[in-house]
Design brief:
single chain, about 100 residues, alpha+beta, five-stranded mixed sheet, two-stranded antiparallel sheet, about 30% strand
Protein backbone atom coordinates (compact mmCIF):
# COMPACT_ATOMS: atom_id res chain seq x y z
CA UNK A 1 0.00 0.00 0.00
CA UNK A 2 3.02 2.25 0.36
CA UNK A 3 3.41 2.35 -3.42
CA UNK A 4 -0.24 3.32 -3.86
CA UNK A 5 0.32 6.20 -1.43
CA UNK A 6 3.26 7.40 -3.53
CA UNK A 7 1.23 7.22 -6.74
CA UNK A 8 -1.74 8.93 -5.07
CA UNK A 9 0.47 11.78 -3.83
CA UNK A 10 1.91 12.25 -7.35
CA UNK A 11 -1.58 12.35 -8.86
CA UNK A 12 -2.77 14.70 -6.13
CA UNK A 13 0.11 17.08 -6.95
CA UNK A 14 -0.74 16.93 -10.66
CA UNK A 15 -4.41 17.59 -9.86
CA UNK A 16 -3.55 20.66 -7.76
CA UNK A 17 -1.20 21.98 -10.47
CA UNK A 18 -3.80 21.48 -13.20
CA UNK A 19 -1.55 19.08 -15.13
CA UNK A 20 -3.28 17.73 -18.24
CA UNK A 21 -2.87 14.32 -19.89
CA UNK A 22 -3.06 13.27 -23.52
CA UNK A 23 -2.88 15.22 -26.78
CA UNK A 24 -6.02 17.23 -26.00
CA UNK A 25 -4.78 18.09 -22.50
CA UNK A 26 -7.49 16.62 -20.28
CA UNK A 27 -6.99 17.62 -16.65
CA UNK A 28 -7.77 15.37 -13.71
CA UNK A 29 -11.29 16.32 -12.56
CA UNK A 30 -11.16 14.42 -9.29
CA UNK A 31 -9.05 11.91 -7.44
CA UNK A 32 -9.92 9.79 -4.42
CA UNK A 33 -8.30 7.03 -2.39
CA UNK A 34 -10.24 4.48 -0.36
CA UNK A 35 -9.17 3.10 3.01
CA UNK A 36 -8.02 -0.06 1.19
CA UNK A 37 -5.68 2.01 -1.00
CA UNK A 38 -7.64 1.85 -4.27
CA UNK A 39 -7.32 5.08 -6.24
CA UNK A 40 -10.03 6.48 -8.51
CA UNK A 41 -9.01 9.09 -11.08
CA UNK A 42 -11.64 10.94 -13.12
CA UNK A 43 -10.85 12.77 -16.34
CA UNK A 44 -13.42 14.39 -18.64
CA UNK A 45 -14.99 11.34 -20.29
CA UNK A 46 -12.87 8.72 -18.53
CA UNK A 47 -12.60 6.90 -15.19
CA UNK A 48 -9.43 4.98 -14.24
CA UNK A 49 -9.05 2.75 -11.18
CA UNK A 50 -5.75 1.71 -9.59
CA UNK A 51 -5.23 -0.93 -6.95
CA UNK A 52 -2.37 -2.95 -5.54
CA UNK A 53 -2.86 -6.72 -5.62
CA UNK A 54 -0.19 -9.20 -4.62
CA UNK A 55 2.67 -6.74 -5.01
CA UNK A 56 1.48 -5.57 -8.44
CA UNK A 57 -0.27 -2.36 -9.46
CA UNK A 58 -3.43 -3.02 -11.47
CA UNK A 59 -4.65 -0.22 -13.76
CA UNK A 60 -8.30 -0.75 -14.71
CA UNK A 61 -9.36 0.98 -17.92
CA UNK A 62 -12.65 0.93 -19.83
CA UNK A 63 -12.22 -1.67 -22.57
CA UNK A 64 -13.49 0.71 -25.24
CA UNK A 65 -10.35 2.89 -25.01
CA UNK A 66 -8.37 0.07 -26.63
CA UNK A 67 -10.98 -0.58 -29.31
CA UNK A 68 -11.05 1.09 -32.71
CA UNK A 69 -14.80 0.57 -32.97
CA UNK A 70 -16.19 2.93 -30.33
CA UNK A 71 -17.81 6.31 -29.84
CA UNK A 72 -15.10 7.60 -27.51
CA UNK A 73 -12.88 10.57 -28.24
CA UNK A 74 -9.78 9.54 -30.20
CA UNK A 75 -7.37 10.99 -27.64
CA UNK A 76 -8.42 8.74 -24.73
CA UNK A 77 -6.14 5.86 -25.78
CA UNK A 78 -3.14 8.20 -25.82
CA UNK A 79 -4.21 9.67 -22.48
CA UNK A 80 -4.26 6.16 -21.00
CA UNK A 81 -0.81 5.43 -22.43
CA UNK A 82 0.58 8.61 -20.87
CA UNK A 83 -1.15 7.88 -17.56
CA UNK A 84 0.23 4.32 -17.42
CA UNK A 85 3.73 5.58 -18.26
CA UNK A 86 3.49 8.00 -15.31
CA UNK A 87 2.32 5.19 -13.01
CA UNK A 88 5.20 2.98 -14.18
CA UNK A 89 7.71 5.76 -13.53
CA UNK A 90 6.38 6.26 -9.99
CA UNK A 91 6.14 2.53 -9.29
CA UNK A 92 9.80 1.99 -10.22
CA UNK A 93 10.31 -1.80 -10.15
CA UNK A 94 6.76 -2.76 -9.08
CA UNK A 95 5.04 -4.62 -11.95
CA UNK A 96 2.11 -2.82 -13.61
CA UNK A 97 -0.78 -4.69 -15.24
CA UNK A 98 -3.43 -3.12 -17.44
CA UNK A 99 -6.90 -4.67 -17.21
CA UNK A 100 -9.78 -3.67 -19.48
CA UNK A 101 -13.11 -3.57 -17.69
Amino acid sequence: MEMMEKIYRKLQDQFKQGFAFGPVGRPIQSIDQTSTGEVTVVFPGLLILLEEVGGRIIVKLPGAVRSTNNDLADDLGELCDQFIAMVKAEAESVPIDEILV
